[in-house]
Every structure is written in C-alpha cells, then in structure tokens.
Amino acid sequence: MTPTDFATLPLDPALLRNLDSLAYHQMTPVQAQSLPEVLAGRDVIVQARTGSGKTAAFGLGLLHKLQAQRFRIQSLVLCPTRELADQVAEEVRTLARTLTNIKVLTLCGGVPIGPQIGSLEHGAHIVVGTPGRIEDHLRKGTLNLSTVDTLVLDEADRMLDMGFQPVLDRIVEHIPSDRQTLLFSATFPPEIESIAQRIMNQPVRITVEERHDERSIEELFSPIDGLSRPEAVRLLLLAERPNAALVFCNTKQGVKALTQHLNQNGLNTQALHGDLDQRERDQTMVLFDNNSCSILVATDVAARGLDIDAVDLVINHEIARDSAVHTHRVGRTGRAGRQGKAITLFDEKERFKLARLGDSLTIEPLPDKGILTQPPYRAPMATLQIDGGKKQKVRRGDILGALTAPGGLDGQQVGKIHLQDLRAYVAVKRSEATLALEMINKGKLKGRQFRARLVR
C-alpha cells in the first residue's frame, strides 16, 4: 500500500468501500496533500487547477464528519456558477452512495425559487449553491445556516471576479464562527488573502503545482503570417478537424466576433462569455458535451469552473495576459490519459511576449493557406430538446426506449442524454435526427406525449 492510497486515510469504512467500488484507489496530488489536513479538522486553503480532483478532497472531508441522523444542514458549498454547483452536487452524491439517507440539495439562480423553498422545508444535510441564490433564501428566511459546521468556497477567485465578495461576507455572518472553512482556488490574488484573513482560522496553505504531461500534450506556437486571427483559427480547425476544440479569447468582443466568423463559414461553433444568461449557458455546454457542437469559443472567466475532459485541441486566439492563465488554458486538453494539442497564435509584434511562457518553445508555421478553400466539417451528433424533464419523472431509459422502439434508431446511434428539471436533451447521430424527432413527437414517454425540436 502506497502513501497515496485512499485506504491509508482514517476515513469512514463505508466511504472507503464506495471509493473501492468506484475504482478510486490512488489519490491525486491535491487529495494527497489536502485530505489529511481536512480530516484533521483544520481550515485549509488549496491552490490547484480545475480538474485536479479537489471536489473529492473536500467532499470526502465533509461526508466523513457528517452525522446522518442529524437531519439539519451541516455543510455549505459555495460555487461561482450553476454548472459547477451541479457538478459538485452530483459528485458528492456519488461519493455518498454507501452512506445512509444523505440528502444533497442544490440551490442556484436561473430557476424558480418556489420549488427550492419546498425542498428546504423537507430538510437537507448538504447544500451546494451559488452565492446570489443562497443570499436570496437567507433574506426570505427560508434557509437556516446556524447548524453548518463546514463551509467550502470552491473556485473562490472566480467568485471574487464576479463581484460576489460582499455577498460572501453577508452569507458568512449566518454561519457559526467555530466552523471548518475550506477554500479552493486556481489562482491566489490579493483578494483571496483578504477574505481568508476575515473568515478563516489559522488556515493551512497548500499549493499544488501540476505540470502538464509533455507526452500527452503537444504545444505549438504559430505566427499568423498575414492572416487575420479568425482566418488563422479557421485554418487550424480545418487542418486538424477536431471532435472537440476549445478556443480562448481575451475579451467578450473577441469571442463574439470569432464565433460569428466560424459559423458564417459553416463550422458548428458556440460562444461562452459573461453576457449569456443561465439557460443559454446550460444549453451551450450541453451542445458541446453532446458533440453536436465541435467548437467552443470562450473567455477565461466564462470557462472557469467547467470540468471538460474530452478536448482534442486548444487554440489561443491571442496570447494570455499572464503565464498562469496560459498554463490553465493548455491544461484543458490531454486529460484523463488522452492525447491533446495546444496552439497559440501570435503576430511578429508580440514575439517578445513569448519569453514569459518558457525558454524552449516550439514555433511552427500555420498549415497551407489553401486549406481555407476546403468545405467545412460538421459535428457528428445532433441534439434534440424534449419539453419534459425530472419534474415530469422522465428518465434516461424512457428517452432511450422511445428512440429505439420498433422502426426507430439503433441504440448505438443515441449519444448522451442530459436531464434537467423541465427539459431533456439527447444527442443522436446527425444522419438520424429527422427519424429521432419523429420517434419522440409521435411516441410516448411515461405514457404521455412530449414535444421535441432540433436544437443543433
């Protein structure tokens, strides 16, 4: 048994059994360094990138100390976005599978508050939410945090970027001062130090420097050589033809202009930036995850908190403003044992900026410009939106059954299914989209008819 085995930790045996069943045997660096301190009850500040395994680090800590027979809110996890809150809540539920009757409740904006009030009346052990919606419930008197003994701030720097510092301070006033506080952040700006001094008690500081595996990521730097940046991006996409590409721009305006250029030239592209409302954000991420949109163009702030594994190609539309952001961008590809490529565009006037990114960079010219005349490629999947979800008791099996009924699709032609409260999204092979629509619109789910439409 190695020092990084989960079995070396003084965890609840039920949690260890579940970790074994999930094939979670070896801790990631962030887990190995932080979990002993978390289990010891200390306040902890962890600086680590997205995708480092931090959710399990704090999730196991709060589940280990949780008293299931005490049906009160014992842990509060604050996240900057609804997507991250949903991801965290789902992972905590998975980690808690072998514990008895643990209730995890998600409280986020972008959805009606009434059903959340009803859920709170039935109680919960763990609440995962966004600061704005948590404050809404506190103001209405529908949320009581007086029994919380663990507070987690996940992606704390992102919450501060979004202007949540005053809201965080007001929320903390409702939580007992003798709690344990865990703060996770990809970067450590002065604002993080300030909030840590106000709300934490002698925190242990842990910094996890995880270098990219050079064997899994090929990193290149390419001069745009007389092309506009949008043309250079399109050239790379046509040459590489990735299933999933993430393109980073430094500004919202850059995201919008590049997305428009790529779509006008026939490439399935979605934008992710701060001007999108929650419904638009949710749908964008579903389309990208479903592989019915091959290209996601995003700002760094909008992409923070998203756990996206299967990215083949990262393109930096322009050089990031600092080396830490560049490293974070490149680390979006080559994950989970996959191979990946990252290409950064620059013009000759910017060559001096490359020095801050390393000494031995691989400079490679762009592919032949004649590739720009090639026809665009299309994403392999199409996504259908069904006007029924969890609230209507629709399950993934119901959707799969309706699509694969006699005369319908083969099961291999159906991709990912995302269930939300009032709607569902299902990916199907693009060539079968018309048949899939017919199977849903003319068939039945749960004995009822639901309307479906093609989203992309």
TrEMBL record:
Q: Does the keyword ATP-binding apply?
A: yes
Q: Which residues form the Helicase ATP-binding domain?
A: 35-206
Any idea which UniProt keywords this protein has?
Answer: ATP-binding, Cytoplasm, Helicase, Hydrolase, Nucleotide-binding
The record's GO CC annotations read: cytosol
- What is one process in the GO biological process aspect for this record? response to temperature stimulus
What is the superkingdom listed in this entry's lineage?
Answer: Bacteria
Motif (Q motif) positions are 4-32
One of the Pfam families matching this protein, by short name? DbpA
Q: Which residues form the Helicase C-terminal domain?
A: 231-387
Which reaction(s) are listed as its catalytic activity? ATP + H2O = ADP + phosphate + H(+)
Q: Which residues form a coiled coil?
A: none
* The EC number(s) this enzyme carries: 3.6.4.13
The record's annotation in InterPro entries points to: DbpA/CsdA_RNA-bd_dom (IPR005580), DEAD/DEAH_box_helicase_dom (IPR011545), DEAD/DEAH_RhlB (IPR044742), DEAD_box_RNA_helicase (IPR050079), Helicase_ATP-bd (IPR014001), Helicase_C-like (IPR001650), Nucleotide-bd_a/b_plait_sf (IPR012677), P-loop_NTPase (IPR027417)
Single GO term (MF): ATP binding
What positions does the domain DEAD-box RNA helicase Q occupy? 4-32
| Family from the record | Belongs to the DEAD box helicase family.
Name recorded for this polypeptide: DEAD-box ATP-dependent RNA helicase RhpA
Organism classification, top ranks? Answer: Bacteria, Pseudomonadati, Pseudomonadota, Gammaproteobacteria, Cellvibrionales
